[in-house]
Amino acid sequence: MAATLKDVALAAGVSIKTVSNVINDYQHIRADTKQRVMEAIAELGYSPNLSARSLRSGRTGVIGLAVPELSLSYFAELAGSIIKAAERRGLKVLIEQTGGDRSHELEILSSPRLQMTDGLLFSPLGMSNEDAHHLNVNFPLVLLGERIFGGPTDHVTMSNVESARAATAHLLSKGRRRIAVVGAHEGEVIGSAGLRLQGYRQALEEAGIAFEPELVAYTTFWHRANGARSMRELLEAGVAFDAVFGMNDTLALGAMRVLQEAGRRIPDDVAVIGFDDLDEGRYSLPTLSTIDPGRDEIADTAVRVLQERISGRDGETPPREFEARFQVIERESSALPA
Amino acid sequence: MAATLKDVALAAGVSIKTVSNVINDYQHIRADTKQRVMEAIAELGYSPNLSARSLRSGRTGVIGLAVPELSLSYFAELAGSIIKAAERRGLKVLIEQTGGDRSHELEILSSPRLQMTDGLLFSPLGMSNEDAHHLNVNFPLVLLGERIFGGPTDHVTMSNVESARAATAHLLSKGRRRIAVVGAHEGEVIGSAGLRLQGYRQALEEAGIAFEPELVAYTTFWHRANGARSMRELLEAGVAFDAVFGMNDTLALGAMRVLQEAGRRIPDDVAVIGFDDLDEGRYSLPTLSTIDPGRDEIADTAVRVLQERISGRDGETPPREFEARFQVIERESSALPA
DNA sequence: CGCCTATCCTACAACGTTGTAGACTCACCT
DNA sequence: AGGTGAGTCTACAACGTTGTAGGATAGGCG
Known about the structure:
Two copies of one chain form a homodimer. The first copy, chain A, is α/β, with parallel strands linked by helices. Helix content of chain A is 40%, strand content 15%.
């Protein structure tokens, strides 16, 4: 059986509360009392019962993180960053996988399954902007991602429009003029796909190049297979292009594969850039140019903001939006001018 | 404020304990009483306080998972599988990252930081067999991975030797005779690298082929960069080979990249097989043959065994070893006979 | 008719912790 | 000498839940 405050108190010849005070660094304790208590703690190998502490304090020191799937590299890396950020602030992270499924996401918001957390970092994929009102919950919630904007909670996101514009501008700076896009979502305005497409169009416009619908490939998901399939369709349709903007690295890698099978040289014939800065792109053949969306900054901000909401220090501060700084990373896949 | 049993009891006109009984499906409750309580619960939006429940029952319903890094694809996918397996059994998962660092791993075993979990799934990377005694802890612990064998706890692992033998045999069956290995660890006997090298040698021996030390490339880590560097060294040393066994997919992908840069055709000139069945290998160019180590089975077994230890049903059952079933997956990288 | 058992419900204590209120000592000031 | 205040410590209650013991009612049996 684990030792309790009572056992330590008995061993040290003091009251339970004094032991509690020692543990919580209460100021006014005589040095020798403190010493005796510390010794008793060490001897009995005492450590506080966190359930009891939580019951008393109403805090668990645990935050929840809901992501679609850890097998999606972006979310695995995000989760890793968040765990590190949480650790720096003395918090533990409990991870839920939603599968990117809207009903599963709503269930997580409403069900009492995460009663053992102080708050939630929520990265939905299936929900859309019309679901924003579901974010009105009675626990601290910080929204991640690009599915919902202007919701009732704090929101940490990447600069989708601007970084997509920068990615496109990067390809333009290499002299590319017919830039295909892979991963658009039919009719989407808000959401990673919609915003990144918007950035793409802005860059074209600034360069005085007409937007050509035939260069846009639509997919439902953002897996490698989707990137590969889209590229196959573009090639079969006989669309001419000298560059590809993959809406994420995974799509770009899938597209690259098909391009190479078809005998197109990268970057000589077609320059490629992705989005996310996954580890994988650093070792692909050729290495993949990409956008570093500032994952560590997103993680750090999200945890910080959630902790502020949990502590209640910020009172009734209205919902805030945070955009992480991004960076264009040029690698082999876009190194050559056309 | 969240509703408590007391509030519900008051609203339903029954005792606190009756509400508790309704929630816990106690048998002898009159239908109409139950009905009234349920209504009160629904109306007040009551949900149990898990801290209080934990304090009372001594169980939290949370298990810990300690892995090196979620940015390593294998562990991200393993974590995903484990979360799903845990969910099926009504458990939540709290993830720690050790960084694969021995001292950090030991700290997790000794420190009281995971007092809020009922048990731990532990996948060390830095610890070695001599550290086995550190696994003697006073909480339920299930060991994962290949770093330690014969320790004092239950252990779930993949069939390293046999599946490495099967991978090698697969290459042999394609007529390959000079099979390079990438990812060996100098002097290691136990551990993924040592065991897989052993399987490689067994397969050679069975085929009556001499083991050639010059075909073995040593690395300290198993990242893509290591696979790439090893392959560069092999090529520079002028060693002849017609196949490569990468000790994991990441190494194999790194090696493939360098092979292609050097103008070797895969699988025509060099057949390649990896190990882990990562999603990435399914979309590489060419697609990567690999070993499916039975990740879901590992996850499911690990969670099941841990839950058994937690419930104490198994009493003083001695430590058990579990080996998941593996499978050779042939893809393009090894499809052609030499 | 009285006893026994099954059903349905309640009061109370306990899990281990921390906040509150207050007791006691001692030095210091008026 | 009495009052004040800081320092040190303790007793008690409370957080919300569940196990234990037992009370009340009703039906079945000898």
